[in-house]
Specification:
membrane; transmembrane helix
C-alpha cells in the first residue's frame, strides 16, 4: 500500500510557470479592462493614450502574482492545513499584487 501524500510520486507543479503567469495576467487584464471601460469620460489632462499604462502594469503585477502562486505549489501539495494555508496565502498575495499594480497603473490619471 502506498501512502497518498508521498512527495516522491506526486507532481509538484500541476501547471507550468508560464501558464500560472498567463493565468494571473489574464485575470488582472480582464479586471482592469472592466474597470477602465466603466470609468466614463477621461480627463483631457491625462493624454490621448492614458489607458495604456494601466493595461500594461496591472497584468504585469498579475503575472508576478502568478509566480508567487506557482511557488506556493510546494506547500499546497502537502495537503491538510498546509494546503489551506497555501491557498489562503496565494489568494491574499494575488489580491495585494493586483491592488499594488492597480495603484501603480492608475497613478497620475484616475488616482492623482
Amino acid at each position: 500500500m502506498t501512502p497518498t501524500n508521498d512527495l516522491t510520486t506526486q507532481q509538484v507543479h500541476p501547471a507550468s510557470l508560464g501558464r500560472r503567469m498567463l493565468q494571473g495576467a489574464a485575470i488582472a487584464f480582464v479586471l482592469i479592462l472592466i474597470f477602465l471601460l466603466g470609468a466614463g469620460e477621461p480627463n483631457p489632462d491625462w493624454g490621448k493614450f492614458w489607458m495604456v499604462r494601466p493595461l500594461l502594469v496591472v497584468p504585469a503585477a498579475g503575472a508576478i502574482a502568478g509566480v508567487f502562486i506557482y511557488f506556493m505549489d510546494y506547500l499546497r501539495i502537502q495537503g491538510g492545513w498546509k494546503r489551506a494555508l497555501a491557498i489562503a496565502l496565494s489568494l491574499i498575495g494575488y489580491i495585494i499584487a493586483l491592488w499594488l499594480g492597480t495603484v501603480l497603473g492608475l497613478d497620475g490619471t484616475m488616482w492623482n
